[in-house]
Specification:
Layout lengths: L1 E4 L4 E6 L4 E7 L21 E3 L2 E4 L2 E6 L2 E6 L5 E4 L11 E5 L5 E7 L7 E6 L11 E4 L6 E8 L3 E5 L5 E5 L4 E8 L2 E7 L3 H12 L12 E3 L7 H13 L6 E4 L20 H10 L3 E6 L2 E3 L5 H6 L5 E2 L7 E4 L7 E6 L5 H14 L7 E4 L8 H6 E3 L2 E2 H4 L3 H15 L7 E3 L11 E4 L7 H15 L6 E2 L13 H15 L4 E3 L25 H31 L4 E2 L1 H4 L13 E3 L3 E3 L9 E6 L4 E4 L5 E3 L5 E6 L7 E4 L6
Parallel strand pairs: 18-19, 18-31, 19-20, 20-25, 25-28, 28-29, 29-30
Antiparallel strand pairs: 1-2, 2-3, 3-17, 4-5, 5-6, 6-7, 7-8, 9-10, 10-16, 11-13, 12-15, 13-14, 14-17, 15-16, 21-24, 22-26, 23-24, 26-27, 32-33, 33-34, 34-39, 35-38, 36-37, 36-39
Helix pairs in contact: 5-8, 10-11
Length: about 650
């Protein structure tokens, strides 16, 4: 460990696993008890001192007068270095007192003209390379903050701080900011390939468990199946038509009040019989779980008395108005269970176990888990783990942890939860992230491709979108049917394949809201035949997906990933943002615009590919090559690496 202490700062630099360092800085004392993604250092570090520098495998940390420079050990090439932010400032780190014992902290690094920057979780800006962006480090619906930055210079950096803030990826500097914190804390690793960087990150923050086989199939959902009879009718029709179906989802307000965490017997009279019938059909049931608890619900009084509800810095409980069900009130204030408190997580799991898991429910959909709050209220939250401004980005992480721990204690060996919010390291809790309540537009579809690629380089291997988008989309129109087909084709090759949305026409946002039909037979006969074929194509993919699950579990490899992951030596692939790899052997080029009769597909250098639809073999040559591929409505371009058998 390198420790430098001066009148204004204490700096710790320590090996944290092979080929990586953890850096912490504080104006007074370094704390080890703060929330974050780094818990126990991975084994295998073999640091060596060389004067004022420390060598740890592929990365060397040089320290001079409190300034850090990280270089590749073998080549001496600079990976990342501190930058003094202002002429008059003492160093590259800022600890600005807030007057309450906390600080606004800033870390400044040099910028590099040739650098491309990826990761940072799930954002809807539509970009793959985020160089030049300012990214808010705040959780929102459709936005998932995972402060891990993947660089084309051969390093990965985790900002190990769950505070609200931002990262500025400017031309003259990179600046990380936490609005309220005790200290600066980041982790950096070096790799000679993207695979090495992602493996090191998984070792430091946790490996994803193996996905259950049922989760690799097709998921059917809509907002919302209102009754047990509606849901079973859809599952039965899949069976009658001979269509593959792995999962069906019971969305929100299958309960009577927010915080009941059980089926409303008025509309779901015999959930145990429902689960039994679904099992006989080969279908698993996943149920929606919200973190909201309204007064008068089953658990409100007990949780409030036990301190299991989130407080407000202004006093009392933090509440937000949400729809009420069947009581003549349109909206009622709801509190939030405090997922950062271990006893509150255990209380929630006891409810989920008794009312769902013991009936045979296979998994949980942790919806609105940011939690879904306006920005001002999110800052007012006072959690057991600390103020919302300091720890709020970890709420969904703790929420997923509670369900994961409950499932594993119940003997589930491959736990999985569908989540709308997570943070760095959440992959170890078996999360499958989805991109939230996105629009039903072609632009949104194109954005999801880039969003998913950045999630892949943020350490979350299991990801999906609402196929067809969430808000709107009229199944009766030919325009939307085309979009649905193209989105469904894209979803066929996503890590998780899930059809969901509130289709037009739909009523206003109330507890009774439900949209139009959203099943594969809801979009006309031509669309049905195309979607049907892709359901069977997904079934063919399942064995390959389970192999990819092993690679994700063992080595932290993304399932869906940008071409740069497998072909980093090809300079052109670092800018390809409308294609992706599904594992090492499938190259997929979704159709992202209406009326497209063909599209260009880039084939990375030095490879031979078999076009799935035609069997034609394409040799990309030593410099890579572009081919024009026909895109009739029935298919999108898919290429198999020659000699592989993913399908």
């Amino acid at each position: 460990m390198i420790i430098e202490s001066g009148p204004h700062e204490i700096l710790h630099v320590e090996p944290w696993g092979p080929h990586a360092f953890r850096v912490r800085s504080a104006p007074h004392a370094i704390r080890d008890d703060l929330p974050g993604a780094l818990t126990t250092p991975p084994a295998g570090a073999r640091p060596q001192r060389r004067g004022s520098a420390m060598v740890n495998g592929r990365i060397t940390a040089e320290v001079e007068a409190g300034r850090l420079r990280f270089v590749h050990t073998e080549t001496g090439r600079e990976l990342l270095a501190d930058k003094q932010p202002y002429v008059w400032h003492r160093g590259p780190r800022v600890h600005a007192p807030l007057g309450d014992g906390n600080h606004r902290v800033e870390q400044h690094f040099r910028a590099y003209d040739d650098e491309r920057l990826y990761g940072l979780g799930q954002h809807q800006h539509g970009l793959l390379d985020q160089k030049g962006c300012v990214i808010d480090l705040v959780q929102r619906n459709t936005t998932t903050t995972i402060p891990f930055l993947f660089s084309s210079r051969g390093y990965g950096l985790l900002w190990n701080n769950p505070a609200m803030g931002r990262v500025e990826l400017a031309r003259d500097a990179t600046r990380w900011v936490a609005d309220s914190a005790h200290q600066i804390d980041y982790w950096i690793t070096a790799g000679d390939s993207p695979a090495q960087i992602m493996a090191s990150y998984a070792d430091a923050t946790g490996h994803a468990p193996l996905i259950p086989e049922w989760a690799a199939g097709f998921w059917q959902s809509k907002l919302r199946y209102r009754t047990q009879a509606e849901l079973l009718a859809v599952a039965r029709r899949h069976k009658e038509l001979g269509l593959p179906l792995s999962v069906i989802v019971a969305d929100y307000f299958h309960w009577a009040r927010m915080g009941d965490w059980r089926f409303d017997p008025e509309f779901w009279p015999d959930p145990q019989a429902m689960v039994k019938e679904l099992d006989q059909l080969g279908v698993k049931l996943v149920v929606s779980v919200w973190p909201t608890v309204e007064a008068g619900s089953d658990n409100y009084s007990e949780m409030r008395a036990a301190g299991h509800l989130v407080s407000s810095v202004e006093g009392g409980l933090l509440t937000q108005d949400w729809p009420a069900k069947g009581r003549g009130e349109s909206f009622v204030p709801s509190a939030y269970y405090d997922a950062t408190v271990p006893d509150a997580r255990r209380k929630l799991w006891r409810e989920l176990r008794e009312h769902y898991a013991e009936l045979g429910v296979a998994g949980f959909w942790l919806d609105a888990g940011e939690p879904d709050l306006p920005a001002r209220k999110a800052e007012q939250a006072l959690y057991g783990a600390g103020p919302g401004r300091q720890v709020g980005n970890m709420y969904g992480h703790y929420h997923a942890r509670g369900v994961h721990d409950g499932l594993t204690e119940a003997g589930v060996q491959r736990p999985l939860s569908l989540v709308r919010s997570c943070w760095a390291g959440s992959q170890r809790y078996g999360v499958a992230l989805w991109s939230g309540d996105i629009p039903t537009t072609w632009a949104a579809l194109a954005t999801q491709v880039r969003t998913g690629l950045n999630v892949a380089l943020s350490g979350i291997p299991w990801w999906n979108t609402d196929i067809g988008g969430f808000h709107g989309g009229d199944p009766a129109t030919e325009e939307y049917r085309e979009l649905m087909i193209r989105w469904f084709q894209f979803g066929t090759f996503c890590p998780v394949m899930r059809l969901h949305g509130v289709r037009a026409p739909s009523g206003p946002f109330t507890a009774e809201q439900t949209g139009a039909d959203n099943e594969v037979w809801s979009y006309g006969e031509r669309a049905f035949q195309i979607l049907r074929e892709h359901l069977f194509l997904r079934e063919r993919l399942k064995p390959y997906l389970m192999k990819l699950a092993e690679a994700a579990h063992e080595r932290g490899e993304p399932v869906l990933r940008p071409l740069l992951f497998d072909f980093p030596g090809d300079e052109r692939v670092w800018t390809v943002d409308d294609q992706f790899m599904l594992g090492p052997d499938l190259l997929v080029a979704p159709v992202l615009a209406p009326g497209a009769a063909s599209r260009s597909v880039y084939l990375p250098q030095g490879t031979r590919w078999v076009e799935f639809a035609t069997g034609d073999v394409h040799d990309s040559g030593p410099t890579g090559g572009t081919v024009e591929v026909a895109t009739p409505l029935e298919r999108i371009p898919v290429f198999l690496r020659e000699g592989s058998r993913p399908l």
